[in-house]
Amino acid sequence: MGRLNKLSLKTILGTIMLVVFSNTFAEGRGSYMHYPTMQNFINNMVSKGFDRQTLQRTFSNIQRDESILAKVNSPAETKPWHKYRPIFVTPQRAIAGVNFWKRHQRALQAASQQYGVPEEIIVAIIGVETLYGRNTGKDNVLRSLTTLAMDFKPREVFYTKELGHYLHLIREEKIPNPHSLTGSYAGAMGLGQFISSSYRNYAIDFNGDGHKDLWHPEDAIGSVANYFSRHGWKTNSDVTVPARITGSFYGKIVNTRANKPTHSLPQLAQFGVQPLGEINSTRVALLELEGQQGKEYWVTGDNFYVITRYNHSPKYAMAVYQLAHDIKRRKFAR
Questions:
Q1: Active-site residue 129, yes or no?
Q2: Is 31 helix (H, G, I), strand (E, B) or coil?
Q3: Cys bridge to 300: 2, 58, 110, 304, which one at CB 3.0-4.6 A?
């Protein structure tokens, strides 16, 4: 009897270890259906009106995409400004922006008039994001979002919410196959690279065909303008100008991140900051970037901050601004 109990105990322990090993192996190699977090996600979506069996079929063959995890851990925004800028602010991208502007002049003019966002800013956003639609991304959106929701722990909550928004988006837009859409490694879609929640909240049917199709230039143009308007873009307010600094007091207010502007121009002057040009903005901030020849300083306004609501990197906002400036200069050059 004692021997049987020992054998039974060994059998039980072995079985437990096998189950643990199998689950661990599944989380590394197999379907996400083995993840407890996936089961919790499905339960949550069922509580919101989704069919359990449909969800189980949808996720039954999705496995972790290692390439997605590699990309999300090395974004371009980690580069210093002098290496980041040449990726997006180039003569070729500016010339392509002028051509895009000419092709879609009516839609851009209408969007700018309706939402108060300059045409060159809308063009530059689409230029930075997808090179005017040439590169909208080849990653499967559902697989990308599932991988990031289940296996990218630093932003697990964010991507789990985006995965839920994606399922709602598929249902709302009556897309029959949730596996059909492609986008960036982070699940952004269309010419303007909207994530699922932004697609649902800010995308619009700007060409009036009954669909919010961000792969269509007119809908993308209107949606980008609507996004900026909804995030507080101020018509006739400036974005940024270079700055000269004196003394050392500027160090108390200088930013390297996309902080909301909180100072007035007279307050900046008290800290030794002089804008090298006119900047019309209710509130301003001082930004420091790593230039090729050393530190660069810029006075940024309310609209610069609005651009960072699209992408929270100040390097991104500066690239958009500088590309927009070059596109406009080239378009109206005599």
A1: yes
A2: strand
A3: 304
Distance between CA atoms of 9 and 1, rounded to whole angstroms?
12
Q: What residue spans define the domains of the chain? A: 135-230
Contact 55, 46 (CB under 8 A): yes
Rounded Cα distance between 196 and 144, Å, is 12
Q: Which two tokens stand for residue 311?
A: 């992408």
Per the confidence metrics, is the pTM higher than 0.70? yes
190 contacts 152 by C-beta, under 8 angstroms: no
Rounded Cα–Cα distance for residues 334 and 329 (Å): 10
DSSP reduced 3-state for 290: strand
Tell me how far apart the alpha carbons of residues 180 and 63 are, in angstroms, rounded to a whole number.
Answer: 16
Question: Which CATH architecture does the domain made up of 135-230 adopt?
Answer: Orthogonal Bundle (1.10)
- Residue (of 83, 180, 90) closest to 131 by Cα position: 90
Residue 24's contacts (CB-CB under 8 Å, 6 or more residues apart) are none
Question: Which of 27, 129, 218, 288 is the catalytic position?
Answer: 129
Helix or strand run (H / E) with residue 160:
helix 156-172
Rounded to a whole number of angstroms, the CA Rg of the chain reads 25
Amino acid at 12: I
